[in-house]
Structure formats: structure tokens, C-alpha cells
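Good morning C.,

I know you're traveling, so I'll keep this short. The sequence:
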Amino acid sequence: MEQKLSLNFGFLGLGMGGTSIAAACADIKTNIKNNNYPYTALLINSNQIDLNKIEPANTTSEKMLIGDGKGAGRDILIGEQLYENDQEDIKQRVETRFKEVDYVWLVAGLGGGTGTGAVIQAIGTLLKSGFNGRFGMILTLPRLKEGRTVIENALQRLQKISQAMGKLGPILLVDNEKLFKQFSEEKPNSSVSEYLRFSNKYVAEALHDLNTVTASYLPTGEYHFDSSEFEKLLKTPGLLHFARFTEKASSIDSSNNLSYAQKLKELIQKGVLSDGYNLEEAQRLAVSVLTDNATAKRMFTFEFTKRMEDLVNELSPTALEKPIATYQSKDIKGPAEVSFYAVFAGLGLPQARISEMVTEHNRLKELEQKVLETEKKDLFASFDASPTPKKEEKTNDLEALFGSDTEKEKGKDDVEDTLELLKLL
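The C-alpha cells, ready to paste straight into the viewer:
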């Protein structure tokens, strides 16, 4: 079956992390006729070596170096300035590269110098280039072990973005702490480079799945989460939470009050790219369920829909829109499985995760202060030194040591003169 897209995406990647994810997203290959690579990307970095590492399979993706190629050294002010210096050139490239796209994702890794420093300026570029209401952000959160500078950079920019969040498009957070932990548990003997490839591809596939499930499959029920509704969801300000998981059809029995409902709830809350959201804040949500034709006939009953509605109403009771859409496909082969896709829009930041970053930042800052105070302490303050002995004079002058015969003779003459005087007296 030929895949169809709800929206034609473009990706504007900033810095090492942002360009890596954006390139992976644009490298998604489909079976769409005459359009195997439907997405495109503009990849911007200030470090020539890091930019050279990225070798897009998609020939429509473009790389752009800003600055002298030496990077920003994790200094967000330098990253911001480097972007500003070339912002007119960047604007022209954005308008050319994304001329045919429906929606642009601004991708940046929070924590470094270029991506973190340039992200706000890049928002301005998209607004000036006609993408107001047609762009969202994919932002990565650093791991706690990456150091105080990285955490502080991420928090500074995230704080500024959160203040304007109500006037921007959705934000999809990629939590490297979560993905790194998951990868290390599943593949403990893998390398860091393998993790990076995994995480980039993981983000790309998750977003692509979300973009195709709404347009590629035959709806079986009354409700259909179509492309226009997906677009409306992507225009909702706030955080975007995405859950995707697959269950064996044999473990799902819609006739016994959905014994798996609690498990589905936990999987939805766990999410794919980040977690810790208060789903009760969701303004909009959608759940899509996909399986093969035979399983669909057995499982997609009135009772199934009712139970799914109960589940989402428990999670997000005040959401304005919350369709439950079921799909079937004759092209799904192999063991009977059921795939669930859930999207929640209009959320606030994950409070526990941000608080964790703030706490770790403050802990490291206090630790650094203690180290500095230790360095300033006079290590020799209690040292009681003995008085310095007087330096002995060394001489090779024998007359100074023993005197001279001349002096002795002179002394003798003086004595005799004195005696003569005494006699006279």
C-alpha cells in the first residue's frame, strides 16, 4: 500500500543536535511514487567538523555553515550572534527551501551554543518568512550528567520560550535522559554513536508515523481523525505529547471491560519522546487504533469505542476535541497486532523534569562554589616556621681569619712608644 501524508514537513535544524535530528527526519524514505523522500531540511551549524559528519541520504537537504567554522563553544551569546550575522541569507534559504512545504519543524538541541543560542532568532526568521501558524518546535532536553553549563543553557532558553509559548506553535520535547536510559537498558553494550543514531531515527519515525496514520488507512468507525484535524492539532500552542505502542491482539478482549485499559493508560502516560505531563491540561487530543482486517472485525465494537472514550475522558476530561479513530489495513501481515497512536496538545511543561534540571543545576553551582572557596583558602595559614638561621659568611681571606704579621709589628711598635712616653712621665 502506498503511504500518504497528512502534511508535507520541512525541518530547520540548528546546532549539532538539531541538525542530526532534522537530517534523520528528512531522510525518512517512503514508497510514495516519484516522491521517495517527501520531506526536506535546512541544516545550520557553526562547527564545520560537526556539519561534515552529517551526510543526508536525501539530496534535497541543504547544509549551511555560519561563522568561521570553529563553533560557538557552548556559549549561547556567540551562537545567537553568529546566526544574526547571517540572518538575511538564512531567511532567503528558508523561503526557498520550504516554498512547497505545509509545515516547518524548528529543531534544536538545548544545551549547546549554536542551537540553543540561535533558536529564538530562528523563530523570528520563520515568522518573517510567512510561517506564522505553520511551524512547531522539536527541542531536546540534555541529560543531567552533561554538566552545569549545558543544563543552564537549556533552562535559560526554555524559560524564555515558555513565556511566549501561548503565541507559538506546539513544542515536542525530546528528553535525552529518558531515551538514554531506555537505550542503555535495552542495549547496554552499544556505543554512544549507536545511541545517537537510535535517538535521531526514533524521533523521525515517531513523527512520520503520526503524519501517515491519519491519511493512509481506511477508517472503520463513525469517527475519523483526518488530515485537517491533525493540522488543527499542530496549531495548538503548548507542549505536544505523543504515545505509540503495539499490543498483541490476543491480549486485548473488548468483551471483558478491557482488562488492558490500565496498561494502555500507563503506556499513554509514559509516551515516546518525553513524559511527566499533566494530561488533564490537554486542550485537544486524538487516539488512532490500527490493525488488520480480521482483527478489526472482531475487536472494533461499540463496546471497544465506549471503553476507549472512558479512558481518554479520565485522562483529559476538559479537552475540547478528543476523537477515537479506528483503522484497518489488508496490508498488515504476520501475527495479529494492534497499534495505538495517541496525541495530546496544549499541555504545560513537564514540571517534575524541569524541576529536576533546576535542582541539579543548583546543586552543581553550590558544589562549584565550595570548590572555589577551598582553592582560595590559605593552605599554609597554620604552618609555624622556625626562624631563618643567620647566613654564615664564607671567606678565603687568610688575613681576615688570622690577621697579618704587619699588623702585629705595628702593634708592637705602638706598645714600645707608649712605654717610652711613660718613662718620660
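Safe travels,
E.
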